[in-house]
Prior knowledge:
Elements: H1 7-16, E1 33-34, H2 36-44, H3 54-64, E2 70-71
Amino acid sequence: MALTLSESDFQAILDAGNWTEIAEDHQSFYNERLPADLVERWVKGYDPEDVETTAGLAALTLLTSAAAWGVERSK
């Protein structure tokens, strides 16, 4: 079973990482942070009865552990 992030969530991740088709890996890419409202939506939207709601939490786990991203502070 594959989990799928929504198009808007996927784009939010790309935007947070300053990723584009022509992006080069350089120092401006370090210190990436996910928007707090995106993380909040994933956490609040989690439903243990609905496996699709785990896609955001899976992305959060990968981005904050393997990719060493942070989360912005709430405004």
